[in-house]
Each structure stands twice: as structure tokens, then as C-alpha cells.
Amino acid sequence: MSRNWKEYNNKLVKRGEFYLLTDFIEYWDKELEEMNKNKRGSPFKFPQSFIDFAAFLKIVFNLPYRQLQGVVKKLATHVPGLKSADYTTLWKRIRATEFELEQLEAIDESEDESEGVIVAIDATGMKVTNRGEWMREKWKKRRGWIKVHISVDVNTKELLGIAITDERVVDSKEFKNLIEQAEYTLNGRKIALTLADGAHDNKDSFNYLKKKGIKSGIKVRKNTSTRARGSPYRAKCVRELKKIGYKAWKKKYCYGMRWISEGFFSAVKRIFGENIRATSIEDMIQEVKMKFLFYNIIVHAV
């Protein structure tokens, strides 16, 4: 099927408009009033929606905090009602913000949920190029990686779960976590099938899927044993694969759709960059998380 280029181009234009969406200014005072109600200590001077907006600018345009202050300050001279904040305030507030995936709208009773959702799970590395706490405490060398684990709805291409670790954490350790996050985000929609590569081929992953009533689309290792070895469900899946062959198995379980998760990684790195600017562990994790959550927002907001 050929792409509708006119529709695609219009989406990209709208995405650019979304980068500078300042609707939050209309509710600035009201939001501050709610945030400061019963608050102890110094009151907030900037609403959370403004902090989210500033964080979005930082990630989209890859800005250090001092440059972010300059951009917001200049924007404030052109946008009525927008106030600027110094870089220290921006850093403290953005760092303290817990950016999380939002639940999807609850399913309508009239919706047909019989087929369920197909979820793809994958992991990738983000380069640590700055020399900071991460190098000194974790690696004792010049370079390292942050590993990002995600679960994605292959039909809507929406991010359903995310976990950020160092590169020593094996992919399968986050398997259960990503499924649990996906179930929460889906808000009542049932996961029918989970796709994952051989890094998740172990008895714990298969047993968890069996417990949840989710079909496995995990690619098992070549020449693997058909013995149960603590997971009868894995043995059953292995026997089926050997019986029908990999090509037929791949088609039956839509394994080719796992590229959706790989495409998600590629898009985030292409738009926001693969390198991490932050130097402390906490800030690195926050920066990476914002990249993935903000990409998910802009893609599905237009």
C-alpha cells in the first residue's frame, strides 16, 4: 500500500506546531492556585504544565539548561502571559518531575475486545558520551550505555511500558515489569500475544505468560530442548515450532510485527539523538525517559 504523502506531510507540519503549543497559559493562575493549596514552605511560582512545556523544549531541541532559559525568556517576549524562569529553577523542577505514561481511555462496552492487543517487547542502548558520575561509579572507563526496555502496541504503535537500566541488566529481567506496565496503560484491554526476541527465551518469561493467559510470540533458541525443564508451556511452544517450522510459526504468531518496537527506537534516536547529555545517573535516566515519552506524545497527538 502506497503512503498518502499529503496526509503524512500534514501530520509533520502539525507535529511542528505541537512543539510550541502554549494552551497551558490560559490556566496558569488557576493551576498555580491548586498546586499551592495547603502547600508548606515557599509557594510554586510556575505551574507544572509550564515545566512540562520547558522539558519538552529541552528534549526536542537538545538544549542545555542555560540555553533553555534563553529560549523561554525570548519566547516570553512574544507570547502574552508566558513567564520565564531561570535555569536553576528549570533544572530543579524538571529533575523533580515524575514523567509517566498515561493510561488510555477506558474501553467502551460496545468495543469488540475479543482479539486482544499484540504487544512487542525489545531493548536498545543509548550512548553515554559525557564523562560524569556514571563513568566514575559504574564503569571505571571512558564509555558506557544506558539500556532502554519498552513494550509497544504493534497496531497503534503506542508506548505501553518503559524501563531504564544499565547495560549489565539482561533483557528478560524487565519482561514481567513491561507486561505489567502494558496492562496498566491499556486500561482494561486484554493482551492476547506478546512478541519478543531470543533474549527473553527462558522459563520465567513463558511461565508468566501462561499465568496471565497470554500467548507467546517469543523466539526460542535454535536446537533448544523440548523438555519442560520447569516450564511445560515453553516445551509446548518449542514442540509446535519444530513441528510446523520457523516460517510457518513466524506467520502464525505475526512475529514480523516485532519490527514496530525496533522502529520506535529508531524514530526516537533519529529525532532526539542517541547520545545522552546528562552526567549524573538520575539525570541520565530522566533524560532518556523524557525522550521516549515525549516522542510517544507527539506522534499520537496529531
List its traits.
302 residues; alpha/beta; Nucleotidyltransferase, domain 5; 2 domains; 6 strands; elongated
Give a verbal description of the structure.
This protein is of the alpha/beta class. It folds into two domains: 5-96, no CATH class; 117-282, Nucleotidyltransferase, domain 5 (2-Layer Sandwich), CATH 3.30.420. The protein is 47% helix and 14% strand. The chain has twelve helices and six strands. It has helices spanning 5-19, 28-36, 48-60, 65-76, 87-96, 133-139, 175-186, 203-212, 232-244, 246-252, 259-272, 281-300, and strands spanning 117-128, 144-153, 159-166, 191-196, 215-218, 275-276. Strands 1, 2, 3, 4, 5 and 6 form a six-stranded mixed β-sheet that branches. It is elongated and about 70 Å long. 29% of the residues are buried.
Brief summary:
With 302 residues, this protein is of the alpha/beta class.
In terms of DSSP E residues, the strand content is: 5-15%
Question: Could you tell me how far the N terminus lies from the C terminus, measured between alpha carbons in angstroms?
Answer: 22 Å
Number of helices: 12
Shape: elongated
Task: State the share of residues found in helices, binned by percent.
Answer: 40-55%
